Backbone:
C-alpha cells in the first residue's frame, strides 16, 4: 500500500510533465502565425456582434413570416371548409325550394281546377238545356288550332251540333261524335260562325273565328254606336232554321279594335278579344237543346 507522500509525489511529477509539454508547444509556435491567429480572432469577435444582430432579425422576420403564412393557410382552410358546407346547404335549400314550388304548382292547379269545376256547376244550374260536363283530352293533329277532343261521346248522349261552353265564354260546337269521344270545332276557326249581340248598343251581328284569341264581327253598319271595350254576348237566335243551340247572353268577349273597310258604305271592321283562352281550356260544358 502506497503512502500519501508517494501519491502526492506522483501528482507533482505528472503536473511537471504537462507543464513541460505546454511549454514545449508554446516555444514551438511561430510568432507570426500566433499574431495572425490573434488578429483573425479579434476580427471574428468584432464581426460576430453585428452578425448576431442580423441573425436575430432574420430569425424574427422569417419566424413572423412563417407564422403569418401558417395562420393564412389555416384561415384559408377554414374558409374553404365553410364555403363547402355553405355550398352543400345551398344545394339542399335549392332542392327543398324546388320541391315546395312543385307542391305549390300542384296545389294551384288543384285550386284552379276546383274553381273551374265549381263555376261550370253553377253555369250548369243556370241553363235550361241538357248539359254534360267533359274534359279536354287532346287536339286534332290536322286542325290543331281549330279543333279539340273531349272525353264524352254518343254513349253519354252527346250529338253533333251541341254547343260547347265554359264559365268564361263560348268554346265551340260539337261537329263529330264517336262512342266515347267527340270533336269540337273551336270558335277561333275561321269557318266558325255564331250569332252575337253588342250588349251596350244592342246591335246584332255574326262573329267569325280569326285566331286563338280573337274573332271578327260582320254586319255592323258604319256610324253605329260602337266602342272599344264593349261586351259581346251570344244573341240566342238560331240561324238557318235550326233550333237555338247557344244560351242567350252568354259571354263571348270584348271589342278590341274598330276600323273602316276600304269599300265605301261597307260595314265596320270590329275585332273581338275572346274571353276564353282556347289554348288552356281543360274543362267544358256541353249544352244540348235536342
Residues:
Amino acid at each position: 500500500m502506497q503512502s500519501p507522500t508517494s501519491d502526492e509525489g506522483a501528482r507533482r511529477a505528472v503536473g511537471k510533465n504537462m507543464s513541460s509539454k505546454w511549454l514545449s508547444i508554446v516555444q514551438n509556435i511561430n510568432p507570426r502565425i500566433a499574431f495572425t491567429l490573434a488578429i483573425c480572432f479579434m476580427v471574428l469577435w468584432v464581426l460576430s456582434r453585428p452578425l448576431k444582430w442580423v441573425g436575430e432579425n432574420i430569425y424574427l422576420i422569417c419566424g413572423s413570416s412563417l407564422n403569418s403564412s401558417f395562420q393564412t393557410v389555416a384561415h384559408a382552410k377554414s374558409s374553404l371548409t365553410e364555403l363547402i358546407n355553405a355550398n352543400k346547404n345551398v344545394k339542399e335549400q335549392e332542392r327543398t325550394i324546388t320541391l315546395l314550388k312543385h307542391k305549390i304548382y300542384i296545389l294551384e292547379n288543384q285550386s284552379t281546377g276546383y274553381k273551374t269545376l265549381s263555376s261550370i256547376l253553377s253555369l250548369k244550374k243556370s241553363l235550361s238545356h241538357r248539359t254534360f260536363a267533359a274534359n279536354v283530352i287532346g287536339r286534332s293533329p290536322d286542325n290543331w288550332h281549330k279543333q279539340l277532343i273531349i272525353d264524352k261521346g254518343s254513349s253519354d248522349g252527346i250529338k253533333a251540333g251541341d254547343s260547347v261552353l265554359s264559365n268564361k265564354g263560348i268554346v265551340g260546337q260539337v261537329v263529330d261524335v264517336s262512342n266515347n269521344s267527340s270533336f269540337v270545332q273551336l270558335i277561333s276557326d275561321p269557318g266558325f260562325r255564331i250569332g252575337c249581340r253588342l250588349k251596350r248598343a244592342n246591335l246584332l251581328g255574326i262573329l267569325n273565328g280569326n285566331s286563338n284569341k280573337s274573332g271578327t264581327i260582320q254586319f255592323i253598319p258604319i256610324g253605329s254606336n260602337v266602342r272599344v271595350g264593349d261586351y259581346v254576348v251570344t244573341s240566342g237566335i238560331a240561324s238557318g232554321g235550326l233550333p237555338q243551340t247557344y244560351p242567350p247572353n252568354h259571354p263571348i268577349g270584348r271589342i278590341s279594335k274598330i276600323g273602316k273597310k276600304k269599300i265605301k258604305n261597307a260595314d265596320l271592321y270590329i275585332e273581338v278579344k275572346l274571353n276564353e283562352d282556347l289554348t288552356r281550356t281543360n274543362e267544358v260544358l256541353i249544352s244540348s237543346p235536342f
Notes: The chain has two domains: 4-62, 129-290.
